Amino acid sequence: MQITRAEVNRFNQDKTKNHKDQFEFLKKQLVNKGVAVEAIVQQIQDFQVAIPSWALGAGGTRFGRFSIGGEPSNLEEKIDDVGLIHALTQSAGAISLHIPWDIPGDTEAIMQRAKEHGLLFDAVNSNTFQDQTNQTYSYKFGSLCHVDPAVRAQAVQHNKDVIDIGVKLGSKSLTVWLADGSVFPGQLNFQQALARTQGSLQEIYEYMPADWSLFIEYKPYEPNFYSTVIQDWGTSHLLANACGERAYCLVDLGHHLPNTNIEQIVATLLWRGKLGGFHFNDSKYGDDDVTVGSIKPYQLFLIFNELVAGMADNQANNPPLAWMIDASHNVKDPIEDLIQSLEAIRLAYAQALVIDQAQLEAARDKNDVTLAQEILQEAYRTDLRPLVREARLRAGGALDPIGYCRAIDIRKVLIEERGLETVATGL
Ligand SMILES: [Mn+2]
């Protein structure tokens, strides 16, 4: 199914007046405070987040997976689902492919399909955390870090294949997340495992075209529970430096131990010009991968504050960041879930944009701790949803995307089209 602009406009009609009243009221208040509202609406409109190709099916945990019906069973249908989300939100203008779950058969046709939905191909993701059928060597004991050079060579070759696929689609970056590590003390020689990983990553880096970037993701634990080779931002940074200028760290919000100050990590990486990308999700305990902004929206806002301030200052010439949602959803419809995540991301971005950074800096210079807190919380506690809605409306999206999904019973339509039994490839 495809949602047309005319259908969205029709749906917006009876909601527009109420929205305009709210927007004009907020705008007046913000303008009085000296906020450049029109520029901010434009910035929100420009902010696009990639949807991973595996996010459109029913998510799962290690305990079970509950089918939702009408799941996209091939890449074409996944692109269609991202297209639906983009048509309604105008904020998901890219898709991030996970290889080998979503290898394009006919590249030209896939690119044409994406183009029809107004979608670009963002970073491609390799997978050496699972064994594929007919694979020569197993990754049970690691991939890029493996003690056996033949296993490492196979994992490096897979990454090169992923780059080749990405080149054809117009992607410009490769994201590497490794599950490599150990489950028990004594299993792995830490120094040698890290050195081998560095060697493998360097080989992948050298293979990339000159206009590509390498994003190195880190994670403290899971699926290995004693040690992970790339456990934290420091290790990722060290490896990125060893690879070269176009290698960067990738921050996944769920890949931190509880209470880690992620906003400080973001600031540190921006200061070094080494922040490449972001994976959005939220969590209560570990890498829970729940909907963005559903548990710790204030943390998300504080992270965006560092991103906005850091990219405005940007003395280290950090490149524009790659944004992707990396969340799972085993109790919600993935389309609605992703819409909620996109909304949370744009709202946090808007909240950060209305902060007067000069005023905040002045408060810091005077060690006025109270004022600094007031400035942040004033931005966070102002209801900026009308700004986000206005950005969406101007781009041709729905004022209420979830309301739209429910009004047309989108899942029912997809089940009618695709059947109840379809299963999306992925986790
Ligand atoms: Mn991730």
What does this structure look like?
The structure is a single chain. The protein contains 15 helices and eleven strands. The chain starts with a helix and ends in a 9-residue tail after the last helix. It is globular, with a radius of gyration of 22 Å. The strands form three sheets. A six-stranded parallel beta sheet has the order 4-5-7-9-10-11. The chain has a three-stranded parallel beta sheet with strand order 1-2-3, covered by helices on one side. It has 427 residues and is of the alpha/beta class. The protein has a single domain, classed as Alpha-Beta Barrel (TIM Barrel), CATH 3.20.20. The model has no long low-confidence stretch (mean pLDDT 96). Helix 5 packs parallel to helix 6 and helix 9 crosses helix 10. Bound molecules: manganese (II) ion. Manganese (II) ion (MN) binds at residues 177, 217, 252, 279, 326.
Could you write a compact summary of the structure shown?
By secondary structure, this protein is an alpha/beta fold. The protein has one domain: Alpha-Beta Barrel (TIM Barrel). The protein is built from 15 helices and eleven strands.
List the helices and strands and how they pair.
Blueprint: H1 5-32, H2 37-46, E1 50-52, H3 75-89, E2 94-96, H4 107-116, E3 120-121, E4 124-125, H5 149-169, E5 173-176, E6 181-182, H6 190-207, E7 213-217, E8 227-228, H7 233-243, E9 247-252, H8 262-271, E10 275-280, H9 297-313, E11 322-325, H10 334-353, H11 357-365, H12 369-381, H13 385-395, H14 401-408, H15 410-418
Parallel strand pairs: 1-2, 2-3, 4-5, 5-7, 7-9, 9-10, 10-11
Antiparallel strand pairs: 6-8
The chain binds manganese (II) ion (MN).
